[in-house]
Design goal:
The structure holds 2 protein chains of 2 kinds. By secondary structure, chain A is an all-alpha fold. Chain A has 14 helices and no strands. Chain A has a domain of 176 residues: MetI-like (MetI-like fold, Orthogonal Bundle), CATH 1.10.3720.10. In chain A, helix 4 packs antiparallel against helix 10. The longest helix of chain A is centred in the middle third of the chain and has 36 residues. Chain B is mainly α. Chain B has 2 domains: 46 residues; 274 residues, Orthogonal Bundle (MetI-like fold), CATH 1.10.3720. The chains are: A mainly alpha, B mainly alpha. At the A-B interface, helix 1, helix 5, helix 6, helix 7 and helix 10 of A face helix 6, helix 7, helix 11, helix 12 and helix 13 of B.
């Protein structure tokens, strides 16, 4: 197990390095200069700005400096706003994004799993058809449409919750609801199909023939085994959580990191886009790493085969 | 047919003769000669052979939900092609006397803040969105098959390097790639297609690689190799046709994903440039005005949902038809 973890860890470090490199050079392929937009900037001002951000140096030097800074967890400062650094934005926005994102995943995962397994156990019953319809609706409605709709009806018309902003617990309800909708559909569908698959396996017959009660079969054999695909999917899902939910944060005007990313894209704030992209990717790579380890613990076959 | 009835007729006559002559106990030798007239028929086939594809098509036709979805999709595509040609309004015609009008006889879906007819903009948007989605699906398919085929067929070091590269791309969330690439290329239909396809092919490559791994030791591949076939020939002529069904299923699933990605990009301000319309642009414009003019979100959103629903249902139908083992 230790060897497996070590190998995965080294490959993660290599991936992180490559991601930072690729992002750095992609950002420098964006046409135009950072300080030539909108207003006329006097030559001398632009020069000093370029010196401040190190843009007067040759590209390879900039690259080395940037990589060195990243190694010290310094991702640079905003090119558009004074006193804003990438790390500061992430530190400020991440907890808020994480609450909404994790809320969405946890609620979505719980409700989805329950619906999915009930649907599979009562195959062709009422819940089953409900889950099938819900699953298809969940992947057919764009999340900004769903978010806007619940905002209009639950907040504006019926005044059950605040419309937008971030000032207390009641402000979290709608965004989490919006974030969990797709997840409920996704997990319900996933659990339903993996459960149906497990139900046909030989070890279920074995369990029955040993005389286990139906309750025990479901609890000890079916549920545990059908949870496996759920564990794999949690990796990308958690990464998505921490990197913020662009659309939902924009609809409900929540100051998370997704919102920071949108703002920096709209401002062409080079250092912010680059820093946020690299941090998001790092988070997602680390999440994959953790999930791989967890998967190795849950399912010993993975360790042996690799 | 005629031949058949002749034979039957003949045998009836023979039977009668037999009975008559058995009474007389005076049998002619000719009656005991072997009747070879039916032998040719026994070797032939009664009806044309059922190929895998015609069998799949028959199963698909019996799936009512999938058939209805397909028909709706065809109608949507026809509308997207012909409605903008036939409409009295162009998608960018502004009418300042009639801004933000609700649905009416003149403007079925109403007009937007510049007095543009939303009905024609919806179908113009359908052109753009569906074009993006279909081209992305085809690009994904082509790149994925070539890449996955080469990696899977050659295996070993080549496969290892190629799959590591895929892992690297996948480890950055797809939307970040798309955003970066669009920033580099400037928003437009073509850049959006490239950006979405640039990361989307990985799924297809992995799928096809897996299939190639399973099939490349088969006898028919060995036979082809013995006859001197090149690797590309084997991949495209032998391995590809044998894995067509998972590829088609996964391509049908790429299309809704691409429509979603385009809508997402429009929503964060990296969509199709004005005055062009796409479903994403229309829906995100509408979402911003939901509180005042709900109909401006309703119609584009409805079209997106119906299309998604149909693509998803058709995809499920295709899966059931092409790979009956997966049916649940």
């Amino acid at each position: 197990m230790a060897k497996y973890v070590l190998r995965r860890f080294i490959s993660m470090l290599v991936t992180l390095f490559l991601i930072a490199t690729v992002t750095f050079f992609l950002m420098h392929m964006i046409p135009g200069q950072p300080f030539e937009v909108t207003r006329e900037t006097p030559e001398s001002v632009r020069k000093s700005l370029e010196v401040k951000h190190g843009l007067d140096k040759p590209l390879w030097q900039q690259y080395l400096i940037y990589m060195n800074n990243i190694a010290h967890l310094d991702f640079g400062i905003s090119m558009k706003y004074k006193g804003i650094s990438v790390i500061g934005e992430v530190a400020g926005g991440m907890p808020i994004s994480a609450i909404i994102g994790f809320g969405g995943v946890v609620i979505g995962c719980l409700i989805g799993s329950v619906l999915g397994s009930v649907a599979a156990l009562k195959n062709k019953g009422f819940v089953d058809y409900f889950v099938i319809i819900l699953a298809i609706l969940g992947v057919s409605i764009p999340n900004f449409v769903f978010g806007s709709l619940i905002q209009r009806y639950l907040a504006v018309e019926w005044k059950l919750f605040p419309i937008q902003g971030y000032k207390g617990v009641q402000y979290f309800v709608l965004p989490i609801l919006a974030a969990s909708f797709t997840n409920i559909a996704y997990y319900a569908r996933m659990l339903r199909s993996s459960m149906l698959d497990v139900m046909r396996q030989d070890y279920i017959y074995t369990a029955r023939s040993k005389g286990l009660s139906e309750n025990e079969i479901v609890r000890k054999h079916m549920l545990r085994n059908s949870m496996l695909p759920l564990v794999t999917s949690l990796g990308p899902m958690c990464a998505g959580v921490l990197t913020g939910n662009f659309v939902i944060e924009k609809i409900f005007n929540i100051p998370g990191i997704g919102q920071s990313m949108i703002v920096s894209i709209q401002n062409f704030d080079y250092t912010m886009i680059m820093g946020l992209t690299i941090i998001f990717s790092f988070i997602s790579v680390i999440c994959y790493f953790v999930v791989d380890i967890v998967y190795g613990i849950v399912d010993p076959r993975i360790r042996i085969s690799k | 047919m005629e031949n058949n009835s002749n034979i039957r007729h003949q045998t009836e006559i023979d039977d009668r003769l037999l009975r008559k002559e058995a009474d007389q106990e005076d049998l002619e030798d000719a009656l005991f000669e072997a009747d070879t007239s039916a032998h040719e028929k026994a070797d032939g086939m009664a009806r044309p052979a059922m190929t895998y594809w015609s069998d799949a098509f028959r199963r698909f036709k019996r799936n009512l939900v999938a058939m209805v979805s397909t028909i709706i999709l065809i109608i949507i595509m026809l509308m997207a092609i012909f409605q903008p040609m036939l409409s009295p309004y162009a998608y960018d015609d502004q009418d300042w006397a009639n801004t933000n009008q609700g649905p009416s006889k003149e403007h079925l879906f109403g007009t937007d803040e510049l007095g543009r007819d939303i009905f024609v903009r919806c179908w113009e948007g359908a052109r753009v969105s569906l074009l993006i989605a279909i081209v992305v699906a085809l690009l994904n398919g082509t790149i994925g098959i070539l890449y996955g085929g080469i990696a899977g067929y050659f295996g070993g070091v080549a496969d290892n390097i190629m799959m590591r590269f895929c892992e690297l791309i996948v480890s950055i969330p797809q939307m970040l790639w798309v955003v970066l690439l669009i920033l580099i290329m400037k928003p437009g239909i073509f850049p959006i297609i490239i950006a979405i396809a640039a990361t989307g092919w990985i799924g297809m490559a992995r799928l096809f690689r897996g299939q190639v791994f399973q099939l490349k030791e088969s006898e028919f591949v060995l036979a082809s190799q013995t006859m001197g076939a090149g690797s590309m020939w084997i991949i495209l002529k032998h391995l590809l046709p044998n894995t067509m069904s998972p590829i088609i299923i996964s391509m049908a699933n790429v299309i809704p994903g691409a429509i979603f990605a385009e809508a997402f990009l429009s929503y964060i301000g990296l969509g199709i440039p004005l005055p062009l319309a796409s479903w994403g642009v229309l829906a995100s414009d509408g979402a911003n005005k939901l509180l005042i003019y709900p109909y401006q979100l309703f119609f584009p959103a409805l079209l997106i949902c119906i299309t998604m629903l149909c693509f998803n249902l058709m995809g499920d139908g295709l899966r059931d038809a092409l790979d009956p083992r997966l049916r649940q």
